Amino acid sequence: MPNFFSKLFCGLGVEPPTREWTGAPIPRAQIRAMWPADLPQVMEIERVSFPPAIQWSMEDFAQCFAPNNKKLGYVIEVENRLVGFLMIFAVNQTLIMVNSIAILPAARRRGLGGLLLKHVEQPTDWCTPRRLVCLVRERNLAAQLFLRAVDFLPHPYAKSDEGAIKFHKRLRSKP
């Protein structure tokens, strides 16, 4: 008997994502700031993760290296191999906009995307995040399921021709 997700994806030409844990353990991962030397690997992750029409260019990623920039990039490595990235924009000291997040297909469903998001939730010397925001296309059901799984809440977003959904996550203040 088909489940809810198989009905939802029926006719879309994509396999429904599963919310079940794959059984693979969360690997030991290292998260660090993105470096210019990471760009070839980041571009490959971008290529295998997104359709060509919405892929970022090398210049888009390189903006995070400009001095005094509020656009920041982070990468996640497992066994000294770069397997994912996160691009954010610090709107102000309490609001972080998640611009892009991607994990290599072979490394997905192991909690790595969630680890990247947890990393930017932590206070730093320049920012104490209180809220994370991410815009997702209505058609991107996999991203919607991922964001819900990491405690983001959806809200309709009226400024988009594509029918985007704004997801946000309020963070608890630490005393």
SSE blueprint:
Blueprint: H1 4-9, E1 29-33, H2 39-49, H3 58-62, E2 71-78, E3 81-90, E4 95-103, H4 112-121, E5 131-137, H5 141-149, E6 153-156, E7 164-170
Parallel strand pairs: 4-5
Antiparallel strand pairs: 1-2, 2-3, 3-4, 5-7, 6-7
Word description of this protein:
The chain is α+β, with helices and mostly antiparallel strands and 175 residues long. The protein has a domain at 28-134: Aminopeptidase (3-Layer(aba) Sandwich), CATH 3.40.630.30. The chain is built from 5 helices and 7 strands; from the N terminus they run αβααβββαβαββ. A 7-stranded mixed sheet has the order 1-2-3-4-5-7-6. The radius of gyration is 16 Å and the shape is globular.
Q: Which architecture of the domain at 28-134 would the CATH scheme give at its second level?
A: 3-Layer(aba) Sandwich
Distance between the termini: 49 Å
CATH class placement of the domain at 28-134 = Alpha Beta
Class per helix and strand makeup: alpha+beta
What does the largest sheet look like? Answer: 7 strands, mixed
Q: What count of helical segments does DSSP give?
A: 5
Number of strands: 7
CATH topology of the domain at 28-134: Aminopeptidase
Strand content: 25-35%
Shape: globular
Low-confidence stretches: 1-23
Strand order across the largest sheet: 1-2-3-4-5-7-6
CATH superfamily of the domain at 28-134: Gcn5-related N-acetyltransferase (GNAT)
